[in-house]
Write a structure and sequence with these properties.
alpha+beta; two-stranded antiparallel sheet
Length: 110
Amino acid sequence: MKKLFFISLFFIGNTAYLFSQSAEENMEKYWYYRFKMQNDHMLIGDCIGCSLPVEARDMTDTDHGLEHELKWGESIKQLSEYLTVLATEYKLLSDNGQDVTQTTKELYYA
C-alpha cells in the first residue's frame, strides 16, 4: 500500500511540470506543414495529375547533390486525407471570418 501511495505521489508531482502547446504554436506548425505539402509533395492546379499528393518521396545523394524522386500512383488514401484537411480548414476559416478563396480553389482542383 505504501508503495502504491509513493508511486501515485511521484506521478502526481511530475505532472505539475507538464504543459501543452498554445493554440498559436499549433497554428504556426499547421501552416508550416501545409506550406511544405503544397511545395514539396504536390503541384496545385488544373493540369493532368495536378493536385494529387505524392505517394512516396525519395531523396538520394548523388555527385550533383540531393535528387528528389516523387512517386504517384493510386493515391486514394493520400487524396482523401488531403480533402479532409481542406474541408476542415475551410470550416475553421469560414467560422472565423477569414478568407477561404485559396482553400475553395484547392478543393475544386482536388
